[in-house]
Amino acid sequence: MKRNKVAEYLKDYALVNAGCGVLLVVIMMANMNLMLSVLIFFATAFTSGLIYGVGEIVDLLEEIRWNTRPKDLTEPQPEPEQESKPEKLPATHEK
What we know:
The chain crosses the membrane at residues 12-32, 38-61. By secondary structure, the protein is mostly helical. It has a domain at 8-64. The chain has helices at residues 5-31, 34-67.
C-alpha cells in the first residue's frame, strides 16, 4: 500500500509547527511576559495536535479504503477504444 502524501505532509507540518512553537516560547520567555509564553505554548501544542490528528484521520481513511476493496479485482483497466472509420466530408467544389 502506498503512503498517502497528504497525510504525511500534515503530520510533518504538525511536527515542524510544534518545533517552531517551542522555539518561539523560549524566545518569548527570555524577552517578554512568562504568562504570554505559556499561553503560546499551549496554543501551539493544541493546534499541532489537531493538525497531526487530521493527518492520522486521512491516513486511516486511506487504509480503510484499501482494506475494504474486493480482493479479486485488480486495478481498473481502461476500456479499449473502438477504431472508428474517418467520416467522409462533403465534397467542396472550387472554381
